[in-house]
Amino acid sequence: MRTVFVNGNYVDENDAKISVFDRGFLFADGVYEVTSVLGGKLVDFEGHFSRLTRSLSELEMGLDVSRDDLLGMHRELVLRNNLDEGLVYLQVTRGAADRDFAFPPEGTPNTIVGFTQSLNLINSEKAKTGISVIFVEDLRWGRCDIKTVQLLYPSLASMQARKKGKQGAWFVRDGFITEGTANNAYIVTKEGTIVTRDLSPSILSGITRKAVLACADKLQMKVEERAFSVDEVADAVEAFTTAATIFVMPVVEIEGKQVGDGKPGPVARKLREIYIEESLKAAT
Amino acid sequence: MRTVFVNGNYVDENDAKISVFDRGFLFADGVYEVTSVLGGKLVDFEGHFSRLTRSLSELEMGLDVSRDDLLGMHRELVLRNNLDEGLVYLQVTRGAADRDFAFPPEGTPNTIVGFTQSLNLINSEKAKTGISVIFVEDLRWGRCDIKTVQLLYPSLASMQARKKGKQGAWFVRDGFITEGTANNAYIVTKEGTIVTRDLSPSILSGITRKAVLACADKLQMKVEERAFSVDEVADAVEAFTTAATIFVMPVVEIEGKQVGDGKPGPVARKLREIYIEESLKAAT
User: Fold this and answer.
1) Could you list the residue range(s) of the whole structural domain that residue B243 is in?
2) Cα A221 from chain centroid?
3) Nearest CA in chain A to B89
4) What is the ipTM of this complex?
5) Which of A89, A143, A177, B203 has a CA 20 to 30 Å removed from the CA of A70?
């Protein structure tokens, strides 16, 4: 049984409950972060806390606890669940109040929930073979830069992929890829340039994206941050996605078409290796 | 203290809790309905149940309970809470399961929650004066025809209105009005034609909308179901919105500009009167 954090208390996962009046449940009025854990240590907690702060600010949602409180909660969850490798999930909502589209009264406490999942991150089987993805029309709302729990459409897209025997989906809007269901999307052109969508309200500013682009820079790889089209994907020699719990994940098939030779390519493999090295060093 | 329904049990509202692993909380993977109550009776339960069924079907979500179960729950909530006038809120989610974008295993039970709110529906003060609304860019997702709990943006839009001292917001996409934050939007042209957006994935198929259009038909009013523009709104002689808990609500000011003479107009007043008459007759 996992130990879960709910509003200041560490409880058995079966007792981890929130009010039915929670605005996270009634209005999807909540934000979240997923921080990966390697060797019992947190990977870039600061990056995740900083993005959480931005998400909250964009939604004019206060935060009743401090950075140190949240860091302490992350560490405590890792400890109590003997977590060596996996993730800590954190969700913050505007709290519980009688249902009203207007925000609850000032002073209504946040709901804060945290839990762990144990995962094989470094020796991921999927990373060895690469994954296949499909294209799905991007029907999400206009503020995908805010990490809200409005994840229904990404969930539906994941299921569409699964039904076709694939492992993921890339969203396409007006002929251009925005990002994956829960990750950023990249291609490598014939010229060896890494291309990934530039930051805007259309995509999430990935914490792993930022770290991986820094790795690419260090390796003197050429990177272009711009929209890339479905046609460019068809011509790419490599493709991959990044996220906190997949690091760098090679994509070897897109919409039924093999990418390059259908095996994880050298750019994705190198970036994955370096990203893991750096993360192991920097985790705290 | 209200009595609330949670997964088969009637409990005190303070004990009305769900798992933090509920997909309604983690993924906004849930749908809802709001049925109004007049004189302790339900207004168009069949309409709401039918739309619920459609929402579930669009999301490939099963329902563990029958129409009769849900009807019984509605009646029981009205009874236990001595509700004379107000609403019954019903939410159904895909249930609780460890967090995964993929749907939970077959057989995972729904989470079903129901509660009441007591409201002055017929003698609404707002209906006497009419309300003021602002325009807000429609940034919602592409499937607003499904009544999901992804209500964060409508909530933000409501707050924007409130900050400006107004009572509501109309969403605008590409220069055309889609609908209100939680209601359908209508104008009356100089020629006396009622215009409201046609049904599509851009708007919710309102249960009250359907009933009000039937009233308009009975009254031999001319109705056009089509997109109408911001410019047409500026030229309108009347405006109003409809929803289960506001019935027909006159709109007397839009984006700072008075509509007609700034008072509830004859079309909205007549439709409200007839709708209430019909609802009182048909409520069961």
Assistant:
1) 125-282
2) 24
3) A99
4) 0.97
5) A143
